[in-house]
Design brief:
Blueprint: E1 12-16, E2 20-25, E3 33-36, E4 39-42, E5 62-63, E6 74-77, E7 80-81, E8 84-85, H1 91-101, H2 106-109, E9 114-118, H3 124-136, E10 142-147, H4 148-154, E11 161-166, E12 171-177, E13 180-181, E14 187-189, H5 193-206, H6 214-227, H7 233-241, E15 248-251, E16 257-260, H8 284-293, H9 300-304, E17 307-310, H10 319-328, E18 339-340, H11 348-357, E19 367-368, H12 369-372
Parallel strand pairs: 1-9, 9-10, 11-17, 17-18
Antiparallel strand pairs: 1-2, 2-3, 4-5, 4-6, 7-8, 10-19, 11-12, 12-13, 12-14, 15-16
Length: 388
Amino acid sequence: MNINFENSEVPIIIDLGSSQIKVGFSGQEHPKKIFNSFIGEPKYNKLIKTLNKDNSIKKELFIGSDCDKNINILKLRYPINHGSFSNNEDIYPLFNYIFSLLKISSEEIKHHPILISEPLENPINNRENISKILFEQFNINKLFFASQPVLSLYSTSNTTGIIFESGDGVTQSCAIYEGYSIPNSFQRYDYGGKDVTNYFDDILKKMGYFFETSAEKLIIKEIKEKCCWACPTNISESIKKNTEFEKENHFLPDGNVMKLGVERVYPPEILFKPEIIGLEYPGFHEMIFNSINNANIELRTKLFENIILSGGNTAINGIGNYMYNEIKGMVNQNVKININSPKNPQLLSWIGGNVISGMEIFKKMWITKQALYHWDIEHVRKPRVPDS
């Protein structure tokens, strides 16, 4: 049976990422739209300026895929930094763009409940600001904020395990047992794919490749995703000493060819050794180990057996093997470790939102506009997702 999602009163699932945003309707297999979460502003002043009604200069903004046609003359910025909005003025235009992508009119918006994913321990005022704009300016009827790791676990049809999620700006780890997230296990640090990209940029500069503009930085990110790979320490050391390491050619937009060899294994190393770039954070393997050790001792065996990787930053080739080798060296040899690397880790959180929003019992968990002003945000900060 085909369902007209646009006209049905079905929930809208929005996964707000620092690098990408995934949006779609509950009941669909995949997000309807995935776009880069940046906003572009013209770098050059127009000869003829567009004015507002009050004769002030109209500020021209391009969002997501609207930037593609003019990307070379735009200055790009990311409104969502480490999981939350840096500037509240960006909330309205970003959500307005999302609803336009979904082809929902202002009259139809109030008929669609909205589920928004967010990182662990996100600032409460970020949730409050989003809620205020959605309820008061878009006049939506129902809203719910859900933890990204919990959603990611539910997308795998599991209710117990460790979810390790790393995106562009936030890396987090969380132990979940029978649908309950264990607060003592929460690990969150504000580093991720953006740091890998910046480190890769530094490496390329030493090789004579310079990418200066915000649009050119996207080229570095694309090359990183295509060619970089995480290589376990015992192997990477021998690779670094091998001066004849096989090189790969990458064609740049201007026709030049970039030749990369051993440089491909350097950037992902900072995910396991953040001290390389001066960060006093634990590595990926240490975050998982700490999350499990902070859970009750009788749960740890099950948690080690079900470690699930989520988020676009875990899609770097070799991450799972690197992580397995590091964790194996930290535990007793009799401990069984199983790391599950899904095919599309960047979609797990959205898919999990799709799963729980379709449950009958979930209908009782939506926050309405009427209840908002009597709503203790801290109380519902980490709700239990209903059993499937």
